């Protein structure tokens, strides 16, 4: 993967899959479906999969940790990289997190990509902070402290007193990504040599915007090694039909939404580009700054058990991604 520079020089963008594990089905079936879809994604040429995690079932999420699921995926795949999206650092002991990441990285044959973040804003994480005995008001300070600890542990492989961590975690240091919608955090991520996962749905991201967050990151990042993974919510096809089935499969998820009465508005509010391939590409290029990424994380807003999910992955790999490549190449040449 060739890194992007701020002058938008031509680049090769990796195609990845961002998986939202939605609760509703028996949990073991959801996790097994992740393994099956990861095999499909690898066969279709996706570079990475990223697993979304949230604690205590927030936003109907079915996974509080990605590490054991990624280890299971690794037993059935050979090349695809395996990302956490994301570990909420304020809730973690940095030493234990480093140990878990190191063990996982060895199990998955050095394919781990370690995404970290603060937990969602807008008060959505307040209950999680409380459950961990923390105050959401300390979110920024806790994140900064844990991140500094994590960086040091991954760089040295040693805890205080010079005791080595086993197995060694030092290979992971160059595979850390920070998820944020905060421009100041993005600048610090660039200066630290971390990758960036700009988060438009975060409290800061809603007001800052992807372009500004990525721009802040590129102010301090080394242009030769900068990594920017932009998440692209996409639903190519007849959205009414797709969502009608999804509402039957996942009724709790849609409770109180406009998905039935106004599916276009529902998807638009969720920043999901939808419709024909041309419509999806036009929406993405207008709103998501795909030309500023080194990696596109395609996110399909359907429950993983949806009968059209695999077909949608095929459409992304064979039609949508190439069309987006062509559209962004035109931007790169300007």
Automatic annotation (TrEMBL):
<dbReference type="Pfam" id="PF00296">
    <property type="entry name" value="Bac_luciferase"/>
</dbReference>
<dbReference type="InterPro" id="IPR050766">
    <property type="entry name" value="Bact_Lucif_Oxidored"/>
</dbReference>
<protein>
    <submittedName>
        <fullName>LLM class flavin-dependent oxidoreductase</fullName>
        <ecNumber>1.-.-.-</ecNumber>
    </submittedName>
</protein>
<dbReference type="InterPro" id="IPR036661">
    <property type="entry name" value="Luciferase-like_sf"/>
</dbReference>
<dbReference type="GO" id="GO:0016491">
    <property type="term" value="F:oxidoreductase activity"/>
</dbReference>
<dbReference type="InterPro" id="IPR011251">
    <property type="entry name" value="Luciferase-like_dom"/>
</dbReference>
<keyword id="KW-0560">Oxidoreductase</keyword>
<feature type="domain" description="Luciferase-like">
    <location>
        <begin position="25"/>
        <end position="242"/>
    </location>
</feature>
